[in-house]
Design goal:
This protein is an alpha+beta fold. The chain has 7 helices and 7 strands, in the order αβββαβααβαββαα. The chain is globular and about 55 Å long. It is 40% helix and 15% strand. The longest helix has 20 residues, at 169-188. Strands 3-2-1-4-7-6-5 form a 7-stranded mixed β-sheet, with helices on both faces.
Length: 211
């Protein structure tokens, strides 16, 4: 493994621990991946997310889907990650987790409001909800990867949440945290009179995000 690969493995391990410690997923739930050239590095299945080591990160050929680390069991959502990288060539990192408030909205007809504060709108824009399909299925992988092509935050109906970044794993983590904060604010502000972002203010933030 190259030095760049070793750094990527460590970053995935450290980020997965942060996701778990912040209550954004459970001990065996959620998965994180990064693109490294033609290879996808991804957290494995059935290992404690709080105590992963660099040697526990699986490697998958993005084009073929071949497990390049057969000693490690791939996450059941590895195909979802792989299809995102195939359909969105600019994508550098993907985080799938089960944050409580975001997951609650994934089972609701209500939407997460990202326009309450500028930060959440800037980081997330529009949040898409992917229709339900059983976890680990090809159907779910196809649906989520289609939706993740044009947005950076996706709710998986009655399942959880996913964020992507074309820049870094850190940005994907920031977006996951912003999504969960926006979900909490959406619930807490139900009886409040809000002065949310105007259409012009959102347009300015859209332009800023594209720079």
């Amino acid at each position: 493994m190259s030095e760049e690969g070793k750094r990527a493995e460590k970053e995935i391990v450290d980020t997965m621990r942060r996701v778990y410690e912040r209550g954004l997923t459970t001990s065996l739930g959620g998965n994180i991946s990064m693109r490294l050239g033609s290879v996808m590095l991804i957290t494995p299945s059935s290992l404690d997310k709080a105590s992963l080591g660099d040697e526990d990160i699986a490697k998958v050929d993005i084009e073929s889907g071949k497990n390049l680390t057969p000693c490690l069991k791939l996450s059941i959502e590895s195909e979802m990650h792989r299809l995102i990288y195939l359909k969105r060539p600019t994508c550098k990192a993907v985080i799938h987790a089960h944050p409580v408030f975001s997951s609650l909205f994934s089972a609701s007809e209500e939407e997460i409001r990202t326009d309450i504060i500028a930060e959440s709108y800037y980081q997330l824009g529009r949040v898409v909800k992917t229709p339900y399909a059983i976890m680990g299925s090809r159907e779910l992988a196809e649906k989520v990867s289609d939706d993740a092509f044009s947005c950076c935050a996706v709710l998986l109906e009655r399942h959880g949440a996913l964020t992507v970044s074309d820049k870094s794993l850190l940005e994907a983590l920031e977006r996951l945290e912003c999504l969960e904060n926006a979900a909490r604010m959406s619930l807490l502000s139900r009886d409040m009179k809000l002065n949310c972002l105007s259409e012009n203010e959102k347009y300015e933030l859209d332009l800023l995000r594209k720079k």
